[in-house]
Amino acid sequence: MDETEFDIRAAMAESVRGRAGSWALVRGFAAYWGEPLGPDDGFPDDELDAAEQRLALRLPAALREAYRLFGRRADLTSNHDVLLTPDELYVLDGALVYRAENQGCAHWGVLLGDVGHEDPPTVMRLDLADKSREHWEPWEERFSTAAAVMAMAEKLLEDDELTDVSDLGDELRDGLRELPALGRGCRWYQGPDVLVSVVEDAWMTARARTPEALEALYEAVPGDWSGE
Fold it and tell me: 0.85 cut: is pTM over it?
């Protein structure tokens, strides 16, 4: 794919068909909104094999593929929440935990009963003061979807002059086109050289390809943008 041409609408729509589409979305997204994926951006098989031996379980195929493809790319995995490295993967109350909220307030995982599936559903668990109330709740229907959404969401949260965040004020104005639904609690919009995510109908994150595109977003979508 030419990194200067990326149809994010088509890629997002295709990603829901299976994990191959999710990885194509990650590749295209990384190249267009940042830097293309390289051969050293993933973890090698020996580190994933070592994790399997330590945990005494087989990692789902989709999880291995994601780690091999972009697991070392912090801009796609760990700007806000954190993708655990293979040697940090652990089991908690019947689930393989692969991701943690940046302050430990939540964790994401795959139930042990589902790790045998190639692209299993994922679950989420809040860290509560009353531990007796903690439990795993359904998250994404496929790990590959969760991983693709992670890559996009984390890139929009990068500490970069081309990214910004704001509380959600007025409804989004004309000039932004809504993209296909992807990810729990996320709505995605595209404008000229800008991508916006509305999270839980409460706040927005944005990434632009140029400073001019970000300034145009400020004018099109007034809000309490942190960098404005």
Answer: yes
